[in-house]
Design a protein that fits this description.
By secondary structure, this protein is mostly beta strands. The protein contains no helices and eleven strands. Strands 2, 4, 5, 6, 9, 10 and 11 form a seven-stranded mixed beta sheet that branches. The protein has a four-stranded antiparallel beta sheet with strand order 1-3-8-7, with no helix packed on it. A hairpin with a 6-residue loop joins β4 and β5. The radius of gyration is 13 Å and the shape is globular. The protein starts with a strand and ends with a strand. About 35% of the residues are buried.
Length: about 120
């Protein structure tokens, strides 16, 4: 199983980035995909997830209304569109996969397959 994130970089406050998570080795529509982030000196936190049953999405309150998660099963790719970026969004962002069907925003501890992460820096 391999997950590869891309799309990170430097953005100005108020700007946007779109992260991609390309997944191989699993049947994507059987897995819930989560997005997570970890800032320097802080713990890993769940940003968003999209479940495997009906594509229902969940968001942390700090990003709700600014971030949108989506999936393209045909391309084996999950996206995180990040708009209205804030300096506090600066972190390494990870995607991860697990075969379960949450109806809530799950802890990162549940996920077993992880990408290597991509750096997002929001600064003027």
């Amino acid at each position: 199983v391999q997950l590869v994130e891309s799309g990170g970089g430097l953005a100005q406050p108020g700007g946007y980035l779109r992260l991609s998570c390309e997944v191989s080795g699993i049947t994507l529509d059987l897995y819930t995909i989560g997005w997570f982030r970890q800032a320097p000196g802080k713990g890993r936190e769940t940003v968003s997830c999209i479940n495997n049953i009906d594509g229902t999405t969940y968001y942390d309150y700090r990003v709700k209304g600014r971030f949108t998660v989506s999936r393209d099963n045909a391309k084996n790719t999950v996206y995180l569109q990040m708009n209205s970026l804030k300096p506090e969004d600066t972190a390494v962002y990870y995607c991860a996969a697990e075969r379960f069907s949450p109806n809530y925003l799950p802890s990162w501890k549940i996920f077993g397959y992880w990408g290597q992460g991509t750096q997002v820096t929001v600064s003027s």
